[in-house]
Amino acid sequence: MSLVLDDSLWCEIGHLDSVHVIDNPNPVDATETALVAQAQAGDFLAFEELVRRYRNDVFGLSQHFVRNREEAWDISQEVFIKAHRALNRFRGDSSFKTWLLRITSNQCKDYLKKRRLTTVPFDETFQAGDTPSSTMDPGHALEARELGEAILKALEGLPAKHRTAFVLREFEGLSYEEMSRVMNCSLGTVMSRLHHARKKLQASLLRMGVVEDEKHE
User: Fold this and answer.
1) Which CATH architecture has domain 137-209?
2) Nearest to 64 by CA among 151, 134, 132
3) How far is CA 165 from CA 122, 150, 195, in A?
4) How far apart are CA 137 and CA 182, in angstroms?
5) Domain locations in the chain?
């Protein structure tokens, strides 16, 4: 099977200064439900539309795992191929996006296990030409870039389960329930992993000197 996933279809991954948290799960999308039903009935154009909707989410999560654009691209291709083959097993118990991200998470873990990798060089993601915003004050833009790079560097030092929890919540904006489905664990475990991820990140950023300890302000 060949999917239309040329490079021009993919957006650049957003910068950390624009990251926000979404507290409520996404409402049921009637259009998505119809597209899934059509795709399950054999309508490949409907499946391509689902690809267009969620390609950046899949690519973004893949890149946070493997820290390399080309490898994230390859993984994304495999995710959508697997999703297409498994369409008839999707029952709508979660959103289609949540289902895709669970496939993505598993695919990334398998990829890293096969190559015995944990991280790749940090500078493969952030190139010198990347800037948080073309309209931001140069001083603030530099601070935002440095903070973003520090956060990503700190993320590399987290255990995979904590890094996944942080990325799904803060980058992908998933609810706790959606995270539990993607990570295949209880809500309590999700909240525990996210709590530990935030505490460890804060400690790392304090050691780097990019944030200040509020107790000493």
Assistant:
1) Orthogonal Bundle (1.10)
2) 151
3) 20, 18, 9
4) 38
5) 22-121, 137-209
